[in-house]
Amino acid sequence: MPVLYHHTMSSASRFIRLVLGEYGLPVELTEEQPWEMRKDFIKLNPAGTLPVMVDDNMRVLCGPTVIAEFLDETSGILKRDKRLLAEDPFQRAEIRRLVEWFLVKMEADVTKPLVRERIFKLQMPPTLGGGAPDSKILRMARGNIRQHLKYISWLAGSRSYLAGSRLSYADLAAAAALSELDYLGEITWAEAPQARDWYQRIKSRPSFRPLLTERVRGVTPVSHYADLDF
Amino acid sequence: MPVLYHHTMSSASRFIRLVLGEYGLPVELTEEQPWEMRKDFIKLNPAGTLPVMVDDNMRVLCGPTVIAEFLDETSGILKRDKRLLAEDPFQRAEIRRLVEWFLVKMEADVTKPLVRERIFKLQMPPTLGGGAPDSKILRMARGNIRQHLKYISWLAGSRSYLAGSRLSYADLAAAAALSELDYLGEITWAEAPQARDWYQRIKSRPSFRPLLTERVRGVTPVSHYADLDF
After folding, report:
1. What gap in Å lies between CA B42 and CA A96, rounded to an integer?
2. Where in A34-73 does DSSP place strands (E)?
3. What gap in Å lies between CA B110 and CA B148, rounded to an integer?
4. CATH of the domain at B178
5. Chain A residue closest to B90 (CA)?
6. What's the gap in Å between the CA of B85 and the closest CA on chain A?
7. Domain range holding A132?
């Protein structure tokens, strides 16, 4: 069985776990602390990014984009109307643009700083940057959430799913990131009812269940986190 | 004819121009100053990244990954042994990993800080961060070059091209970034003869010619920059 090196609070890892879940592909999960830059992990992926998937023949796939494209080519292509990357090149381009938006842009603006300050720094040793959260970084990241939520609301309000009429990688990437922010209680859902309705639908999918049961040591999720009717 | 919004000193833009050149696809070039975040440009690509390609039907493709995948699906697929993204899923994964390495990791470690400090800051107004280069950033970025050059040398020494036996996106992404560093005279080629031999081969391709003739206002390239036998 392939091994997926992941972290429960890495959006890119959650995204790939959701894709694997949707396609029914089992993997063995191994948690990796991304700040450790563990020598044997860097041998697998010199860039040090998560997730990394290693198959039974020790072939290595590094990072969410590479893994998602590989899964589309080897599994998605057989799924017909359940394929998570559309068939049309322009549709595929729009899905990829949105995946990048959520895993790169929103990650840099919001998700990464909040997860790092509120979760990773609790677990990191002081020599690697652990310690109390930086209130300036928290404030800046929180200031960016509203804009991103507005964009998701706009997408969810104008289409059934974020990239069009069918569930796609774009929904899974967005929900992966949002689920971390929701865990931390950082989202005021009342301000974004269209985003909430869409997230409720994605969150109710069986592929989402494992994510909703995981807990981070020392950080209790917001009360509605695992609630499918929040 | 499609329009490509680019900047001559953006590695991602150079990469896509090389791909278009290799596939013989003509585009109209429009230079965009990435630091301006021009309103009409942000409408095309909310993430503000370069390059952006707009086709005759005003369909927009944002960023190097999205454009490269689109070009593979619409042109590459017809090119047989001239296809720049291999056929085998694992080969494709390795090519994509390396493209990301050069356009994300090396970009963050080396190319972006050097281009920003030495070129962009000359042209940016002080209100947007323009001014004299920060010597601490220059020192850090220069310290990272050697490691990246060593990696390229190792790849070039163990394979004909960086991702295997055929020219691929990986070579074009690496050469796009290196060409900017070379313009700035930041590369000590004598230290990396295998990387130099490989770069010389890529640089000699007709697709490279337009890049070698462009000049940045106020910054003269190193004397061997356009020299095919440096």
Report:
1. 18
2. 52-54, 60-62
3. 9
4. 1.20.1050.10
5. A70
6. 12
7. 89-205
CB nearest to B73's CB, from A46, A61, A92: A92
Which residues on adjacent β-strands are paired with residue A3?
A28, A54
pLDDT by position in tens, chain B (length 230): 999 999 999 999 999 999 999 999 999 999 999 899 999 999 999 999 999 999 999 999 999 999 999 999 999 999 999 999 999 999 999 999 999 999 999 999 999 999 999 999 999 999 989 999 999 999 999 999 999 999 999 999 999 999 999 999 999 999 999 999 999 999 999 999 999 999 999 999 999 999 999 999 889 999 999 988 87
Shortest distance between the Cα of B147 and any Cα of chain A, in A, equals 12
- Domain harbouring B20, CATH code: 3.40.30.10
Q: Mutating which of A61, A66, A109 best tests the B interface, going by the most B Cβ atoms within 10 A?
A: A66
Q: What is the ipTM of this complex?
A: 0.95
For chain B, the domain total comes to 2
Chain B residues whose CB is inside 8 A of the A110 CB are: none
Q: Confirm or reject contact between B70 and chain A (CB < 8 A).
A: yes
CA distance A128 to A123: 10
- Per the CB < 8 A criterion, the answer to whether B49 and B62 are in contact is yes
Taking the CA of residue A33 and the nearest CA in chain B, the distance in Å comes to: 19
- A63 to chain B: which residues are within 8 Å by CB? 97, 100
CA distance A104 to A195: 20
Asked if B46 and A70 come within 8 Å (Cβ–Cβ), the reply is no
From the number of C-beta atoms within 10 Å of its C-beta (0-12, 13-18, 19+), residue B56 rates as: exposed
